[in-house]
Amino acid sequence: MSFSERPILVFWETTRACPLACGHCRASAIARPLPGELSTEEGRGLIDRLLEFGRPYPTLILTGGDPLQRADLPELIEHARARGLHVAVSPAVSERLDSVTLTKLAGLGVSALSISLDGGTAGTHERIRGAVGHFDRTLDAIRSGLRAGMRVQVNSTVMSSNVEELPGLLQAIYRQGIRVWEVFFLVRTGRGAGLEEITAEEAEDVSHFLFDASRYGVLVRPVEAPFVRRIRKEREGTGPSPTGPLYATLHRELEERMGPATRDSSLAPKGTLDGDGILFASYDGSVYPGGFLEYRLGNIRTDNPIALYRETELLRRIRAREFRGACGICPHRSDCGGSRARAFVHSGDPLGSDPACLFARGLAAPA
Fold first, then answer.
1. Can you name the residues that pair with 10 across neighbouring β-strands?
2. DSSP 131-154
3. What is the C-alpha to C-alpha distance for residues 189 and 297, in angstroms, rounded to an integer?
4. Which of 86, 210, 269, 367 is deepest in the core (most CB within 10 A)?
């Protein structure tokens, strides 16, 4: 896959306003919109500029904060759909997200809905989300989205406080009829800066678990964990068998809950990176390689986002896999490439090595 000319996904953080205050929120969302938010006309202009990428147009993902906090959300969706863009929405589970709203979104032509679920139990999910009763409301929103006829995917963020609940999470979403699971490996940005990431050893174990999870008829999409692609290659080839203690625990519980896996893995052998297939526009029009990579490229109010994507030196180097350190000499860099966001958070270098990758850490170890 080559994303040199156009991304396949453009995320627009339509607002920082959100009724929730989740502990790991990338946006550090707050109750009210921040000054400088793109106007309706500016939003329509951003949508129009995306057509300049040419066909196939990127999918536009409206996120936040909570995009439902924008009164003009229906107008923006209609504008994008009228121009031939596929639109997905990633709302907060709040009082605004009821069956009436979901039916309306489906009627506007929203193709997919992303709902976040961060624990296999109510206690864990609600501790992360900071809202009592939120677990059941989230399951209700999932069911309502499916009834409205939308493709619903569940997003989950993996961190130290919930990693052992991954088998329960998979079982919970599977029982709801969900067949797409995006699993975010925590990057310490926004409010998530104060949370504890899983270790590189644990990330290796979780990656092996996700290979197992991908064999139950659920499309598993790791986010900020491209090294899972290496795990897929190893597990389907002659690579070493997983032996980590966390993996053993997760694997055992997974089979207890769901029985033995019987299908081929749904993990993609290749995929996107920040700036390689992905582009992110913030609430004020600032453009970044991705939502977790806070390396500002420009602003749509003054810069052409097509030129920013195609011509910015950093993005060219990411797409060419011109990395430094262990990621730069890794034999898997063309398929993987490491999390550019995590590298930037830990070292200040978006082209540095991903510290969550155990393989890269081994490459960097002294002889």
1. 60, 279
2. -TTHHHHHHHHHHHHHHTT-EEEE
3. 18
4. 210
DSSP E strands in the chain: the ranges are 9-13, 59-63, 87-89, 112-116, 151-158, 180-185, 219-223, 273-274, 277-281, 286-288, 298-299
**Confidence class of residue 91 from pLDDT cuts 50, 70 and 90?**
very high
Q: How many distinct structural domains can be found in the chain? A: 2
| φ, ψ dihedrals at 222, nearest 5° | -70, 140
User: What mean pLDDT value characterizes the chain?
Assistant: 95
The reported pLDDT for the residue numbered 23 is 83
Cα dihedral 231, 232, 238, 240 sign: positive
Q: Quick one: residue 319, left, alpha or beta (phi over 0 = left, psi -120 to 50 = alpha)?
A: alpha
Rounded Cα distance between 272 and 349, Å, is 19
CA neighbours within 13 Å on the CB side: how many for 232?
24
Residues facing residue 280 across a β-bridge:
11, 288
DSSP sequence for 94-136: STT-SHHHHHHHHHHT--EEEEE---SSHHHHHHHHT-TTHHH
Predicted structure pTM score: 0.95
Question: Hey, which residues does 182 pair with through a beta bridge?
Answer: 155, 221
Measured distance CA(83)–CA(77) in Å, rounded: 10
- 4 CB-near residues (< 8 Å, 6+ apart): 310, 319
Strand, coil or helix: 18: coil
Contact 58, 50 (CB under 8 A): yes
The closest of 276, 287, 222 to 7, measured between CA atoms, is 276
355, 343 in Cβ contact below 8 A? yes
Ramachandran angles phi, psi of 155, nearest 5°: -105, 135
Peptide bond before residue 56 is cis, with ω within 30 degrees of 0: yes
Flag whether 275 is in a domain: no
Question: Which residue type, as a one-letter code, is found at position 23?
Answer: G
Domain boundary among 212, 228, 258: 258
Find the mean pLDDT for residues 139-168. 96
Q: Give the CATH number of the domain where residue 94 resides.
A: 3.20.20.70
Range of the domain at 339: 321-367
What is the rounded average pLDDT of the residues 303-328? 97
